[in-house]
Amino acid sequence: MKLENQLKKEVQKVSNRVVEWRRDFHRHPELAFQEERTSRKVRELLTSWGIKTETVAQTGIIGLLEGSNRGKTVAIRADIDALPITEETNLPYRSQEEGKMHACGHDAHTAIALGVAKVLTKFKDSLDGNIKFIFQPAEEGAGGAKPMIEAGALDKPPVEAIFGFHVWPDLPSGKIGLKKGPIMASADDLKLTIKGQGAHGARPHQGRDPITIGADTIVALQQLVSREVEARQPTVLSIGSFQAGSTYNVIPDKAVIKGTLRTLNPEVRSYIKERMTEVIDSLTQALQADYELEYNCQLPPTVNTPGYIEVLKEVAEEVSPGSSIVLNEASMGSEDFGYFLQEVPGAYFMLGTRNPDQGVVHPIHSSKFDLDEAVLPLGVEILCHSVLKSLIN
Ligand SMILES: [Zn+2]
Ligand SMILES: [Zn+2]
């Protein structure tokens, strides 16, 4: 039997279990770095299939499927954490944990990666190389990718290529969204404290008003994006919080401004960061205030290696003709998979899950989020093929 047909058969065999695993994880969501149950289940399953496992970064699991023949090592990464959201669906498998929900579909990611592991163990004897399964905790906010990499997720043996993916309700069920180059944005946080001097509201000249200085600063920072960045470079600076004072007629001592910067280009990212400091420094100096700026580089952009997008495209068209879609635009959202792609080549794709007939239309992070489970086996099959193809290329 041809390998493609053999794979399809094995994927079909495991597909009910993939759905069961997904529903089980969905019922028992766990937040960042608290994924004890999920992690234990992943480890038990991998071990039962003869895959070596290691627990790292608290609740992360690295599984290594060693092929019988020597060769490259290719990795798949799945994130395993849930969100602090109370689920508002009536699904039979809805969250049983108040205030926690798999509203970003990481339950499906974990189940799909397990499906790939189960299927590929069947091919161990003919495998030229190794496959690594990276089950990463804390994708949402807390940042689990970095500690996984620091713990050696990409070493021992060194990973030569990596695949990541996200279930994507913006795309119709069964479509595969692909984009060369950047697909998700960088995300940095800033906290700016303007230190003025308080005064009576009737006598502002006796103080230094941090509110007007803060307002000027926000406008000036927006001009960095609109006037200094080339118009075709997607860049977003959003100020989400401006806190100062407490009443009508008192000028406060300080104002605290918080915001986020998103870019697709590492050069634009460092340019804005540098210019931000210059603008804040000279503006506050001119207006006679002090400041403190905390700038945290949180996540790099997720930048796909074109060659591996080609691999995914070929595979998607073989497995499900007409399924691949070229995404013209990146998402300005972020994903810590970018850390992996900073270290090794690879690709991140979107697996369409939108199905209006089933009422599956809600965006990720919605309390009503769900996905079309019919796409789970497709995700398994595409990843199995892509990994095998990358081992021999
Ligand atoms: Zn999310
Ligand atoms: Zn997510």
What does this 3D model show about the protein?
The protein is an alpha/beta fold and 393 residues long. The chain has two domains: 1-184 and 301-392, Zn peptidases (Aminopeptidase, 3-Layer(aba) Sandwich), CATH 3.40.630; 186-299, Alpha-Beta Plaits, CATH 3.30.70.360. It has nine helices and 16 strands. The strands form four sheets. An eight-stranded mixed beta sheet has the order 1-2-4-3-5-16-6-15, with helices on both faces. A four-stranded antiparallel beta sheet has the order 10-12-8-13, covered by helices on one side. β3, α3 and β4 (128-136) form a beta-alpha-beta unit. α1 crosses α9 (376-392) and α7 packs across α9 (376-392). The chain is elongated, with a radius of gyration of 24 Å. The structure holds zinc ion (ZN) (2 copies). One zinc ion binds at residues 104, 140, 364-365.
Task: Offer a concise description of the structure.
Keywords: Hydrolase, Manganese, Metal-binding. The chain has nine helices and 16 strands.
Low-confidence stretches: none
**Strand-and-helix sequence, N→C?**
HHEEEHEHEEEEEHEEEHEEHEHEH
What's the level 1 CATH class of the largest domain?
Alpha Beta
The distinct bound ligands, ions and cofactors come out as: zinc ion
Tally of discrete structural domains: 2
Number of strands: 16
Widest β-sheet, arrangement of strands: 1-2-4-3-5-16-6-15
- Over all CA atoms, what is the radius of gyration? 24 Å
Q: How is the main sheet built?
A: 8 strands, mixed
The CATH H-level superfamily of the largest domain is Zn peptidases
Tell me the strand percentage band: 25-35%
Overall helicity: 25-40%
Mean pLDDT: 96
CATH architecture descriptor text of the largest domain: 3-Layer(aba) Sandwich
- Quote the CATH topology of the largest domain: Aminopeptidase
Question: How far apart are the termini?
Answer: 22 Å
Q: Can you tell me the overall shape?
A: elongated
* Helix-and-strand structural type: alpha/beta
Domain Peptidase M20 dimerisation: 190-283
Protein name: Amidohydrolase
Binding site for Mn(2+): 104, 106, 140, 166, 365
InterPro entries: Amidohydrolase, Bact_exopeptidase_dim_dom, Peptidase_M20, Peptidase_M20_dimer
